[in-house]
What does this fold into?
Amino acid sequence: MSHISFQCSNCQNYLRTQAKAAGLTIKCPVCEDEIVVPTETEAVAEEMPEVEKGGDTGFDAGAAVKDFGNAFRELDYQMLFPLNRILNLFRLRHSYVQWVLLLGLAPLLLFQMQVGLGLGFEQTVWLIQLYFCALWVIYINRLLQPEGEGWKRPLAYGLFTLTTGLPLLLFTRNLPVINGLTQMDATGGLLAQLTYYIGGVGIMEELTKALPLLFFGLYRGGIRNGKEGLFLGFMSGVAFALAEGVQYTILTTMYGAPSIVITQLIFRLMTGPLLHGALAGIVGWFIGMSAREERRWPTVAVGVLLAGVMHGLYNTFAMGWLGVLMAGFIFVTFLMYTQYEVPVEVE
It folds into this structure.
């Protein structure tokens, strides 16, 4: 006997005719096989696959959580979080770590100082300008690696330019001959502009920045070579740019259009210190090289004249593309002197 296990087609047809006899045993008149007419529940059960005894088709949440935890425990955390390397970086031995922290954290410190100390606008401008000047000084110091006693003398040269050189420059511009140059109409022809910017601005400002090097370095024998003079001159030039940048930033902010204020601020923060520092550094290189000669003043005069002419040419064409090219020429000339090794004369 079987449950709907049809041996022939007649069994199917016969079963359909006897559908109301559910649960009864019926014999097929053709093949004589006995079949049981299933109930509706039994028919559905036979269509479903059998489940093995003891099987569990439910979701085991505990096992899933355990597998999830095991996956995290098997991770190589020493590789993911190399604490030894992190602690080594916090020792600040690597220059790239120092630069990232200096560039990333210093503006935050400036903001905290401005808020905490309640600094006004002019004081804040001085603080920001000093920060960018310091960035250039640190970079050029790393580039040159000058020999000396540290930062005491370079800072003293920069302070001299701020407190003494600039007031002297303002005083000398009122002298008769120099006053004639500085009072020339800079909006005149090209020749008038060149005369004004080279003689009344370029040479005068480069002499101002060279004063501490000439007096404390050359006169007292404090500068021994070109590289030393290059860095000390750069320090004096950056100090000059610090005061000039603050002055122009304040004036532009008060009277300039917003777009001009933004570009002027970027120029005074980034380009101004490098431009003044590079020109003063070139003069410093000539002053340092003159220390090895008996007649020093001709070498110094050539350096001041060279820097003064480049300074004046830049100012003359500063409002056009020629000014950009002139600034690039000044930067490349300065970098050339940073890499220039003077051949040693063999007697």
Observations:
- Residues 180 and 228 are 36 Å apart (CA to CA).
- The first strand starts at residue 25 and ends at 27.
- Residues 1-6 have pLDDT under 50 and may be disordered.
- The radius of gyration is 44 Å.
